[in-house]
Specification:
- This protein has 122 residues and is of the alpha+beta class.
- Strands 2-5-4-3-1-6 form a six-stranded antiparallel sheet, covered by helices on one side.
Length: 122
């Protein structure tokens, strides 16, 4: 009976590890030049896209209206893997304008942003 339980636990662990690695492989297909669309955040602010806080936008002379970024198409300019294993990307607007008229690029955790709907593929 003990051997059956151990075998069952081994099989379950193997299946779980395989599922985790296959989902990680899906997100690593992001390349420089890929185009995404910014969606609506679930919370009042964006959690996985690192937009600057309103006071920094205002100090630089910009307009701190986060609703204006919804629906914008963005292009991946660089990809970097963080120490904790997440993929951090730098994104810029596809039309060449700046976010809030102040910031040319912002960074984002691509995996979390795609899962939460803050970014979506085209």
């Amino acid at each position: 009976m003990r051997q059956i339980m151990l075998a069952l636990m081994f099989v379950m662990t193997t299946v779980m590890v395989k599922a985790q690695t296959s989902s990680d492989v899906e997100f690593q297909k992001v390349e420089v030049g890929d185009v995404f669309e910014i969606g609506r955040p679930e919370a009042p602010t964006y959690k996985h896209i690192d937009f600057p806080r309103a006071n920094f936008i205002i100090k630089k002379g910009g307009i701190a209206n986060y609703k204006t970024v919804e629906g914008n198409k963005v292009v991946v300019t660089s990809i970097k893997e963080a120490k904790d294993g997440t993929l951090q990307v730098k994104i810029k607007r596809a039309d060449g304008r700046k976010f809030f008229n102040t910031h040319a690029t912002v960074s984002a955790d691509i995996q979390s942003a795609l899962q939460s709907g803050e970014l979506s593929t085209l």
